[in-house]
């Protein structure tokens, strides 16, 4: 079995993830494709991930790809996470991940409707949900685009309340609105359009999928074909990776993950005693790139691409990740994390290194910090998931 060591794995990141200066992307679509999809749970991540990979890019460039050209689309995907996906790849994500999620979430929502006493037993609750979904979809079609609040005006049943964790200190009674829209989005029937506020806003206009994108999100791929395509794209960007990495990143079952590896004819490699996989023909050493530095945002796809992160993270996990596995803003040098960055109220980019990286790399990091301060132009980014070191750097 061929061995691929840590240094080789780190070397691949500069070229494949478009982080080395000589390998950067030409546009937001190429930037997204280099890491398969962009994380979009935190709206700022999308723009900062693109800016880290596309020289000279700005918010307007990414917004144009998302909302005018529609060459990128925001959708629910792997692990019930919202991603920004190259539009041509959206049917793959829908069939490979979103469709299964929609089935599971429908069962869960019906259960919650019954528990809240909204529609009797499961069969009646399912019928109630279908009726509300169809009414909501019709209202959206008539409007062309709408906010959740506007749709709730058209379909009053969206204002029904669920009963979450009754009797607990964290009990809540949320409106069913967001869950119904989530369900319609998971099924690929509606899509998120422009944000209601600035590019940092997490609230969006909704549109019917067919109105937003010719043909909608449905494709002609079977689930198995789509999973094969997604696994191939993942290994192109993130290989070598383990079976556990692939299963975690996709949110698939163990059986689905194994089947996809067989379908792409993945080649086993030795990752210092652990079995990893690459695509056929991808065993050769990566062509070296120049030394590089990158400031990546919270939830950037690169650090979130593997379940096992030791090979690029070292001993820094407790300071850079929150307790549920979300990474904060990170500083990279030649394929490994060497520090973190944040923004105090004054808006400048402040950083802290976690190890000695030498004078030349430190100088490059200082230059990147100044460049990001200019790029943000006083806009302060507060990650949705706060991490220990980011909190410290954001004080004052």
From TrEMBL:
Matches recorded under Pfam families: AlkZ-like
Name recorded for this polypeptide: Winged helix DNA-binding domain-containing protein
InterPro entries reported for this sequence: AlkZ-like
Domain of life: Bacteria
Organism, as annotated: Kribbella italica
């Amino acid at each position: 079995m061929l061995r691929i060591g840590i240094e080789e794995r780190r070397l691949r990141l500069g070229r494949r993830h478009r982080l080395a200066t000589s390998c950067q992307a030409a546009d937001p679509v190429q930037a997204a494709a280099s890491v398969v999809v962009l994380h979009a749970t935190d709206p700022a991540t999308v723009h900062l991930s693109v800016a880290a990979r596309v020289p000279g890019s700005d918010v307007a460039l990414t917004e144009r790809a998302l909302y005018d050209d529609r060459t990128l689309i925001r959708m629910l995907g792997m692990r019930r996470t919202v991603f920004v996906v190259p539009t041509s790849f959206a049917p793959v994500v829908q069939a490979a991940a979103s469709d299964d999620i929609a089935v599971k979430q429908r069962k869960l929502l019906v259960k919650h409707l019954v528990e809240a006493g909204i529609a009797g037993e499961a069969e009646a609750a399912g019928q109630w949900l279908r009726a509300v979904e169809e009414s909501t979809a019709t209202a959206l079609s008539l409007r062309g685009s709408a906010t959740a609040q506007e749709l709730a005006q058209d379909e009053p049943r969206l204002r029904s309340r669920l009963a979450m964790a009754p009797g607990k200190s964290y009990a809540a009674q949320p409106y069913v609105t967001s869950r119904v829209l989530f369900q319609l989005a998971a099924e690929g029937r509606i899509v998120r359009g422009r944000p209601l506020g600035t590019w940092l806003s997490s609230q969006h206009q909704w549109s019917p999928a067919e109105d937003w994108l010719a043909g909608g999100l449905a494709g002609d791929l079977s689930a198995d074909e789509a999973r094969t395509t997604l696994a191939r794209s993942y290994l192109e960007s993130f290989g070598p990776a383990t079976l556990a990495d692939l299963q975690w990143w996709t949110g698939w079952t163990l059986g689905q993950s194994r089947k996809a590896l067989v379908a792409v004819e993945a080649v086993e490699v030795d990752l210092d005693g652990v079995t990893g996989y690459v695509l056929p023909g991808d065993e050769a050493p990566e062509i070296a790139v120049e030394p590089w530095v990158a400031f990546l945002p919270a939830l950037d796809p690169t650090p979130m691409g593997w379940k096992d992160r030791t090979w690029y993270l070292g001993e820094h996990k407790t300071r850079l990740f929150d307790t549920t596995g979300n990474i904060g803003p990170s500083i990279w040098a030649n394929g490994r994390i060497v520090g973190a960055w944040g923004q105090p109220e004054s808006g400048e980019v402040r950083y802290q290194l976690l190890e000695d990286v030498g004078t030349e790399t430190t100088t490059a990091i200082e230059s990147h910090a100044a460049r990001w301060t200019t790029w943000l132009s006083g806009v302060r980014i507060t990650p949705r998931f706060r991490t220990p070191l980011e909190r410290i750097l954001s004080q004052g």
